[in-house]
Structure formats: C-alpha cells, structure tokens
Predict the 3D structure of the following.
Amino acid sequence: MTARTKLIELLKSEAAQESVLIKGWIRTQRESKDFSFIELNDGSCLANIQIIVDNDVDDYQEIVKLTTGAAISVTGELVESLGKGQKWEVRARAIGVLGVAPDDFPLQKKRHTDEYLRTIAHLRPRSNKYSAIFRMRSKLSFAVHQFFKERNFQWIHTPIITGSDCEGAGEMFSVTTMDLNNIPKKNGAVDYEQDFFGKEASLTVSGQLSVETFCLSLGDVYTFGPTFRSENSNTSRHMSEFWMIEPEMAFADIHDDMKLGQEFVQYLVKYTMEECTEDLELFAKFVDKNLMSTLENIVNNDFIRLSYTDAVDLLLKSNQKFEFPVKWGSDLQSEHERFLTEKHFKQPVIVYDYPKDIKAFYMRINDDEKTVAAMDILVPAIGEIIGGSQREERYDVLRQRITGMGFDEADYWWYLDTRKYGTVPHAGFGLGFERLLMLVSGISNIRDVIPFPRTPKHLEF
C-alpha cells in the first residue's frame, strides 16, 4: 500500500464523519470560472491531493491569491474525483491560511538544477526529488537497525571526539578550545596540556577502534553515526561529514566478513524495492533509467569473489585505457572498480587480500607477509560501497604494525589491551550510508543524499 493510498484510506475513514481536515503546502493553484484547484502536499508521500475550492467559500478572493509554497489547512469532504489522474479529491468547506509564501519563493513549478537546489538546501526538501530521497533516507536508517536486530547485534554509541587516528590518513579536524590568536607553546610546539582535554583531540574518522572493544566483550556489535574527514576533496563521492555503519563480529574471519557484507547490501536494496516503491519510481523514471535493473542485479546475484592480485591481472589484460595506471601495490581507483562490476563481470564483486602497505595497521597480515585479510565490496554505478577486514588479533604483530606506521604506541594502549587480555579472531567493515543512498536512488552526487552537505569551503545552513 503506497503512502498516498494510506492517506486516502485515512481520509475515507474520517469522511464517514462530518468532515476531514488536512494540512500541507500548496504545490500549484489554478483558477477556473466558479472555483479553483489546489494541489496540496503534506510531505508524507510523493503524490499531491487535489482540493476543489468553490467561490462561495469564505475569503475566496484571498485564497485564490495564495501561491506555491503557502501553507494551509483544509476542512471539507473527501469525494470521488470527476477529473483524470486521481480517484479522490477534497471539496473544501473552509480554508485556513497558516503561512503565506511571497512571489519570490525560490521553488516554482519547474525543474531546478541540483546545483541551484544546493544553494537553498533549507528549502529543497519541498521539491519532489529531495522529499523522496530524504524519506528514503529515513526508512533505510530504520532498516539498518532492523537488519542488525534480526541478527542479535548490539548497537554501540562510539565517541565523536577522539585522541587517535583510526585510518592513518592524518586528515582529521582538530577540536580545541585554545585561543587561535594566542596558542600556548612549549619548546616551540603547541602545548596541548593547556587545551580542554589536555592532549591533541580530533573529530573521529571512524568508530571502528572503539566498537572493537565492545566486540571483544559483547560479541557481535555495530555503530551507526556521523564521521568526519578533512580531506580537501571536491569530488561527487566525498564529503567532510558523513554517516558510517560499522559492524564488528567476534570469532569471525574475512570469509564471515564478506558474507555479512553481501547480506547487508542485498537486504538494504531489497528493503528499498519493497518499502520505498513510490519514491523509487520517481528516481527510476527521472534520474536513472537503469536503476531498477541495477538493483535487481544486486539482489538476485551472489557477489563474485576475486583476490586483489587476480583483479590486477584481469585489469592489466583487459586492454582497457584507464586514467590511473594499474599496477600491483597501488589501490584500485573508481574507474577500475566500475570496470570490474559494470563491464567485465556485470555484477557486484568482492576484492580481497590487498597489499599490506596500502592498508591500515589494524588489518590482519596474511601468511604471505605481503597482503592483509582486507576486502572491498564493489557494486555497479558506485564502485566501492563497503571496506572491511579481519582484524589483527595478535598482540605482538599489532604492536609492530602500530609503531611501524609511525604511530605512538602509548596512544593505543587501550586498543592493545584488547589483544593482551583474551584476544579472539574478529572482523568487521564500514559502509558509507550516503553511498548506499546514491546506489538505491541513482543520484550521482553525494551532496544530494544528505540534508546539509559539508564540503571544503562550504558550511552553510
């Protein structure tokens, strides 16, 4: 049952009484000889409902002056429509004006570019495209929790402020209360002992290290929350603030990790197809004509599993021209990932066993001493949507990895303790929620699937 059908059923049940009351925003209004038509939307679903306003309604001359964007309340009867395009409409008996919208209301009945709509992100949810994606975002947030609840995972709230660098990238936002015009120094360096936490602090790039400690206490756990990266990147796939889903499984290896990752992606895509049908139809019609076939491909096929070494060999033998050269020891780029999923295999692919020198310190070193038990899940239209690994559970090996990558072992004393006391094999991954939304909507720019995008030189709203 669509959201519109649910609305009509609700109104019909109320129509058995004397009247119905609905509230919403005017999408369009047109005047005829003795009455006017108002298309009203309350944000709950994509479809509008038509309001018939006869010219004998109180303040009719003021009502017909209302323009797109105005908010009204309508009291009337739900009746069968004589017009085309809808079965039901509301014949108004009284209309209350809740909020007018002057003629300079920036959303009119025409197609606006995404670039323009980003400049009015506070109003763009009133457009069809953005109301649809943000309803889907809400529903899929629920689906994330539902997936893990069905598998007995515990949801852990991990810190946003951290004193450690999880990824080793160093591209983190500093958190400080110090006067930037008068920074205290000691021996020529910033004296962080004078700062709020008494040490250098940053916004987290991942909740993984913290959630691991609960994995080694409570078993299967996950975190779902905002993360931050100060990478100066202005691409359609990167933002400075985004949401991450990071499950962690105890007594698990890389194969368990790949299995869970595939199940998770397929679950969320299937949920979208079953629970977001009305909004999904909009994207399939106006945003990406191949969207439904892409989603069906993901749901209906097992993901190909391919070692990194085999993936590199395949790319080298493909005779395909790439902007970024392919060689063993370099990370795969988006163009390589999309070639594998869209041109060669034409279905999702899991690449595993990456070179250890391009991966994070916490990933388990394989017996060949050259690779780590890491995996990426690649899907058509997006490329990488999940990155994960079996974690390095061996205390001495983890210590060597931390110091070998230039980190201070003292900063990770608590993390090492989890390997010192009752360590077990465990594995997990991270999925960028916004990339998932890009996948299920066909939207090509990540700025358009989050309410208020944060990117370099852009901090509005």
About this structure: The mean pLDDT is 93. Residues 124-169+205-448 form a domain with the BirA Bifunctional Protein; domain 2 fold (CATH 3.30.930.10).
